Amino acid sequence: MINKKSIRFYNDHKVRAIWSEEENKWYFSATDIIGAINDEQDYVKAGNYWRWLKKKLASLGIQPVSATHDFKFQAPDGKMRKSDVLDFEGVEMVAKNLPNMRATAFLDWFTFSDNSIDGQSRKKAYTLFESGILDDMQAGTIQSLRQIHAYLFGGLYDFAGQIRTKTIWKDGTLFCRAEYLRYNLEQIEQMPQTTFDEIVDKYVEMNIAHPFMEGNGRSTRLWLDLIFKSSIKQCVDWSQIDKKAYLQAMRQSTTDSSAIRELLRSAMTDQINDREIFMKGIDYSYYYEQED
User: Taking every pair of C-alpha atoms in the chain, what is the biggest distance, in angstroms?
Assistant: First the structure.
């Protein structure tokens, strides 16, 4: 059985997880948890610290790791290796037994992340691949973008799926004025989408339009992949695109789209039906929206 995998990001540290269908819950990489809490980028050092901590906890009669699981994560050498995993309660137990403020801050984030708007929306996004809903959408249309937005944010925002009627700014960038938005969206919808370059041009124009009050990036990246899959039988492996490079390229794209074009080109894959590619894409898409 292929397990569902997910990545969360804490201060730019990956916290990988695997879903247990039998128990209906996530299990998290213990080494990733330690790396995130201790702000340790070296995977080997984080693993060594975890093994030391596990022994210390065992001496106190604390067993946060279940021995009944055989989950594997990719090691630094690229091989899949069996790893210690922690469920939600295990993560809490480990964090509470680390005597530093970093552990407290991490636990605050960890317990909140699933219940935030982003956390709930991300879980909705995970179901899109399984549901087949995306397959029934007409790629490149405004209607399909509205459907994606409504699915991701339904019940979370009262404007889910609704084209904005107010003019908005972000980080000093003025997006399409509300009075011109619907006309511009009609023009974008008519743009060709038969080649890689045409699709990127359409994506850049949609980003400049920014049709929703919130959730534009997360919705539009799914919309982009839907066009790629439909038109050229490829999609983006978003895990190959660095967050800072992506954000900088998107800011530049209002006047020069060459940087985002090259970033996307370097991350294209023909694995359009691969669940892990899709899930990682969702995780990275939501990571791009996290404030530094």
Answer: 68
Query: Which pLDDT value is given to residue 194?
Result: 98
Give the Cα separation of 211 and 205 in Å (integer).
Answer: 11
Contact by Cβ (8 Å): 146, 194: no
CA dist., res. 192 & res. 213, Å (int): 26
Return the pLDDT at 205.
Answer: 97
Helix (H, G, I), strand (E, B) or coil at 292: coil
154: number of Cβ within 10 Å: 13
User: Is-contact 141 189, C-beta < 8 A?
Assistant: yes
Nearest to 155 by CA among 199, 186, 120: 120
Quote the pLDDT of residue 1.
46
Residue closest to 98 by CA, chosen among 42, 44, 52: 52
33, 64, 131 from 87: Cα distances, Å: 11, 8, 26
Residue whose entry in the numeric block shows the structure tokens 């938005």: 181
Which one-letter amino acid corresponds to residue 54?
K
DSSP bridge partners of 86: 28
Beta strands in 139-265 (DSSP E): 169-170, 173-174, 235-236
Q: Which among 240, 292, 289 is positioned nearest to 122, based on CA atoms?
A: 289
Domain ranges in the chain?
A: 5-115, 118-288
Q: Are 280 and 5 in contact (CB under 8 A)?
A: yes
| 110 touches 32 (CB < 8 A) | no
Flag residues of the chain having pLDDT under 50: 1
In this structure, are residues 47 and 38 in contact, taking their beta carbons and an 8 Å threshold? no
3-state secondary structure of 258: helix
Average pLDDT, the chain: 91
d(CA 246, CA 248): 5
pTM of the model: 0.83
Q: Was domain 118-288 assigned CATH 3.30.420.40?
A: no
